[in-house]
Amino acid sequence: MKILFYTPLTDAAAWLHDLTRALPGAELREWQPGDTAPADFAVVWRPPRELFAPRAGLRAVFNMGAGVDAILALEREHPGTLPRDALLVRLEDTGMAPQMVEYTLHSVLRYLRRFDEYAALQAQRRWQMLDPHPRETFTVGVLGLGVLGTQVAQAIAALGIPVRGYSRSAKQIDGIATFAGEAQLGAFLDGAKVLVNLLPHTPDTHDVLNARVFSQLARGAYLINVARGAHLVEQDLLDALASGQIAAATLDVFREEPLRPDHLFWQHPRVTITPHSSALTLREEGIAQIAEKIGALTRGETVGGLVDIARGY
Ligand code: NAP
Ligand code: GLV
Q: Which residues form the D-isomer specific 2-hydroxyacid dehydrogenase NAD-binding domain (predicted)?
């Protein structure tokens, strides 16, 4: 079995080493420009289009993360990039859900208990008690109720905070008020105090965090974007922060990464920035899942995490 590997990240050697150990008998090679030799599987993160150039025998492409937007953008720009019969498989959780839960819980609690405002007061040496936000009306809306969004919604609800969830298809989740499809987006947003974004980036969700959406939240709402930068209309957020419609935002992802040094977000007193680090792919868990799925496909079994290319996630 021949396996092609590519990542632009710095830990490529460690991945190759550990993949080789997890797949004894497989012939692993790191893709180099010009390599068009046959392969059965590819394990990739943000691959260049050339990696897919005539690869008729490729059975499956494993994405080393949850979001497959970079690969599907190549396919949209250059139809036929992905070999027609190859499956596209993404990572499911592999340790990302607990990290996402930690990150979003921290952010929600920071805003609920006004730690962001106390930090600003401390910087001015001001001893001032702020009225607490009532927990009963501090409604959190989670956009996306997939592998990550469901666990995030449940963890926040476990604190007794009201939680709503939004997805494409209808769902029933204990303790969460669920909404599905465009027709219910307004009811989902209506008066929510915090919006957490965990949608995949697809043509349908591009620019979904925009002025119209912000205007339906409670006045002084909070935004937590941990999905993709292309979900957010940046100028709409800056305007909403200026008007007070949005009180503060925590942003882990950006339209352009790394964020340019002169970007307005860096200096904004009510924007918190992290460098796309809310939930990292954990090598050991990721490799175990990929090796297990390669084994299952080789035995002719089906696997989870199959991407529906037409749907975009
Ligand atoms: P997932 O399991 O595929 O879940 C996606 C959810 O979004 C599903 O509930 C889906 O609805 C919903 N959805 C998709 N398109 C929609 C639309 N047009 N309208 C309404 N709902 C829609 O994905 P996941 O594993 O939870 O990951 C979500 C995203 O998080 C990834 O795509 C990635 O971009 C991002 N992410 C970021 C980081 C980071 O470090 N910042 C790390 C990991 C992941 P259905 O349930 O009805 O299909
Ligand atoms: C990270 O952003 C991922 O999609 O796994």
A: 107-277
